[in-house]
Design a protein that fits this description.
Strand content: 15-25%
Shape: globular
Number of strands: 17
Strand order of the largest sheet: 1-7-6-5-2-3-4-8
Largest sheet: 8 strands, mixed
Amino acid sequence: MNVSEKIDFLMNLTGTKNSSLGKALCFDPSYISRIRSGNRGIPKNQPFTRPVAAFFAETLQDGAQLDSASHMILGKTKLPADKEALELCLYEWLEDNSEAGSSSDPVGTFISDIKKMLDNVSSSSTTVSQFSSNMDALLTSHPNISKSQENSLPVSVYYGNSGKRKSVINFLTSLVEQKKPFNLFLYSDENMKWLVESPEFAKQWAMLLMYLMKTGSHIQIIHTINRDFYEMMEAIRKWLPLYATGSIEPFYYPLMRDNIYHRSLFIAEGDSAVISTSVGDHTEEMSNFYIKDEQAVSSLKKEYDNYFSLCKPLMKTYSSVRKGDFMQKMISDEKIHGKYMVAHPVPSLWTMPDSTASKISDRSGDDSLLKRVMEMKNDIINVLENGGNVTEFLTMPLSAIKAGQNIPIPLSDMMSDTEYYYLPEEYMENLKEMQKYVDKYENYKVLVSDAFPCSILLFTHLEADTLIASASAPTYAFIVSNHQFTASFYEYMQRLETLSDKNEDSIDKYIGEVEKILSK
């Protein structure tokens, strides 16, 4: 089921009218109707599924309704009666597209998850001491996550998916309780059911890993790319909340494997490991070994290293603390042909007039912006004049533009230590310059669209890496190197281009509306 079908199910189950849900969420009833029918996607630029979950947590109080919803969402397990816990369950179910099959959109879901993750990271101020308090509460409230005699044995054996979860919890808990950083090396191509079938375990697993990274641990993970594409996307989605820490290096094995004999290796160098094997998808009743023997752990690390030597980087993470060569990845001199697809809340840097860039640079006391604008302008004009194409989605909604208010320029902290921003009149100068390029180059197209969250940037090319970044400081960014990912992002944006408004005056209308707002 996709999210539209799930909302329709809950509305039918509770007898909720379009007008009732629309009133509660401040949406027109006709908009709710189109979402239910699948003719309209859920809004990208404002919260939706969480308010829907809160509404039905209040509405689902009848015993028969709760039983029906439990059967649909959790199978044999009953939904919690507590309203807050019920709201969380409903929200996670609405957000989870892993069961949607071929009708779901894994790239769209991935983009949505990145938006939520970046929003959370940007607003998070959780300290190590706060994490320690949360960890103490977790260890106290869950008796199964605690010190045990098993953690001192050289080898302990657990069976099936529940056993794998217990072995992993014991493995991570033992590391946390030692209060020191570790180098972790993780690989698994086994069926993911052990990880996704228990939401409670997934939260514990994520908290333990996050605590380890917050206290200095580093993770290297080899993802399995030759899984079914939907399963592979789901696996990487599970890691998204942890990627932004910058403490994870993801890799992948580029060639095909037999998909029959599977292996898991979770290693804390010099301390312990969890290993298992299985055939096909048959993980029930299989053995999972939690190993504390130093020589055995060293041997397993050599096995991991042998496999790692055959792997390639999947993606790199960047932040304003680690700028690296991030801005150079925005455009590559070697890829002057083909088509670039870009989504930005404001016009791309290369469309900024030199005079505007100069004024902004002078105001900030740093000329990094002016240099970057000129470099990118040369690169993109080279693309356009040598047969390439550029399609740009302009994603900032008019409601986000206020008269008399400055407009932040994305990636400022990746270019400089200062904050760049448009004055209202400078933003208009950039929009009008963008229009000039649209008029000049037939192979440059600008689409005003709400198909992408305005809080992220996307940049992709069929033969280059895909770049995804937050649009506001502090900037967190991913550069994805895997070709299957890049092709999927490219095809997703190309499909949205086909579906978007193609009126030639759409950018004209947008400029006119912005001009009205800024002149008030």
